[in-house]
């Protein structure tokens, strides 16, 4: 019996019991949809978390000074001397953080205030959309200049151009020299709510002495570890206490987040795969029922020349067709499900092309695996005994 005849007879058998076939397909559909939905949402969540971490800057080290006793900060010059001469550093920026009320005319806006230096643009990949960034002269001469985030510009100036205008920050006058490009929300809140001023001016404005946090950007991934070791060594010589400072390696955190996310995705997908196995058991059950119902047909076909291989191939085709249809419908259903869940929890859903291929392959494998026993049972029927069945 040729393949075309096998296909024709298999489709006829499936369509002759539409409701039963539909329920069997539903079991596989649920399994595949669960796998696709879980993987799509998990990958979307991973990308969202990763992008938030990367928004802090690429190849970034964050150094926090805890100090010892009253010695809990470093001066700006000490930070720059501490990092001088270390190979692989692309930029260093001390940071002084606080909050301020920005005012322009009758408008005011509560914002985050960051004191940084001219290298902060390199460290955080932050370039002004309009105007300019700070220069070394702005830092050394404590210039009262500021760069505004998009939300600050909108609240204070509306559609007007803020460049060259004077604003008040906690009562002190600063000249706007630039507008930062929109960056959206991050781990520490929206960066569009920030106002940047020179770190030396921020110390005076906020009444601070020295800095307790600074960022270091490496030139590449390989240099980050070397920089971290060198800075740690110099800080230990400065404080003689490993508890006096902490160095946070963003690259390691990204790798940790990725590993955890992949483990959770694999675990959830494995749980969802159980539904696929249950669907396969349903296929085996239906195929066994089909063998019993079609015993006389099998005997007749064998009597007129059908081989054991022909019978087995037909029943395997039917089980594989049921699982294949369930797999395709499951991919479509899983995609719709993933988008719905992602929209509800406000994360992107990333369609897992590789996962869809694996899920479809598993569905077909389930159809074949759970169809072998019924197919062999049908193929082993003796023609005379099958024809005697009523």
UniProtKB/TrEMBL annotation:
Pfam families: FtsX, MacB_PCD. Residues 270-383 form the ABC3 transporter permease C-terminal domain. GO terms for cellular component: plasma membrane. Keywords: Cell membrane, Membrane, Transmembrane, Transmembrane helix. It is a multi-pass membrane protein. It is found in: Cell membrane. InterPro entries: ABC3_permease_C, MacB_PCD, Macrolide_Exporter_MacB. GO terms for molecular function: transmembrane transporter activity. It comes from the Bacteria. The chain crosses the membrane at residues 21-42, 266-292, 315-338, 350-373. Residues 21-232 form the MacB-like periplasmic core domain. PANTHER family: ABC TRANSPORTER PERMEASE YTRF, MEMBRANE COMPONENT OF TRANSPORTER-RELATED. Belongs to the ABC-4 integral membrane protein family. This is ABC transporter permease. It comes from Candidatus Fermentithermobacillus carboniphilus.
């Amino acid at each position: 019996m040729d393949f075309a005849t096998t296909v024709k007879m298999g489709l006829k058998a499936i369509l002759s019991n539409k409701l039963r076939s539909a329920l069997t397909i539903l079991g596989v559909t649920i399994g595949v949809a669960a796998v696709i939905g879980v993987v799509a949402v998990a990958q979307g969540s991973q990308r969202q978390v990763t992008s938030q971490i990367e928004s802090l800057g690429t190849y970034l080290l964050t150094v926090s000074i805890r100090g010892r006793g009253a010695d809990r900060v470093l001066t700006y010059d000490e930070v720059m001397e501490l990092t001088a001469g270390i190979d692989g550093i692309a930029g260093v920026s001390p940071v002084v953080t606080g909050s301020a009320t920005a005012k322009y005319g009758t408008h005011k806006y509560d914002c985050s205030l960051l004191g940084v230096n001219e290298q902060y643009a390199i460290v955080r990949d932050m370039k002004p959309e309009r105007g300019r960034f700070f220069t070394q002269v702005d830092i050394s001469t404590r210039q009262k200049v500021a760069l505004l985030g998009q939300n600050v510009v909108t609240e204070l100036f509306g559609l007007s151009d803020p460049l060259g205008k004077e604003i008040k920050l906690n009562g002190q006058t600063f000249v706007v020299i630039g507008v930062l490009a929109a960056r959206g929300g991050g781990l520490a809140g929206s960066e569009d709510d920030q106002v940047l001023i020179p770190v030396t001016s921020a110390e005076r404005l906020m009444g601070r002495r020295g800095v307790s946090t600074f960022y270091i950007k490496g030139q590449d991934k390989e240099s980050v570890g070397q920089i971290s070791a060198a800075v740690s060594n110099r800080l230990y010589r400065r404080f003689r206490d490993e508890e006096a400072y902490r160095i946070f390696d963003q690259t390691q955190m990204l790798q940790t987040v990725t590993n955890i996310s992949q483990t959770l995705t694999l675990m959830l997908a494995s749980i969802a795969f159980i539904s696929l196995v249950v669907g396969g058991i349903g296929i085996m059950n239906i195929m066994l029922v089909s063998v019993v119902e079609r015993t006389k047909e099998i005997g007749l076909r064998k009597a007129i020349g059908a081989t054991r291989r022909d019978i087995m191939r037909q029943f395997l085709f039917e089980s594989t067709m049921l699982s294949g249809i369930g797999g395709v419908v499951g991919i479509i259903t899983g995609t719709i499900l993933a988008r719905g869940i992602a929209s509800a929890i406000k994360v992107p859903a990333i369609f897992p092309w590789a996962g869809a291929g694996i899920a479809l392959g598993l569905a077909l494998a389930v159809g074949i695996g759970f169809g072998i026993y019924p197919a062999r049972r049908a193929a082993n029927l003796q023609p005379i005994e099958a024809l005697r069945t009523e």
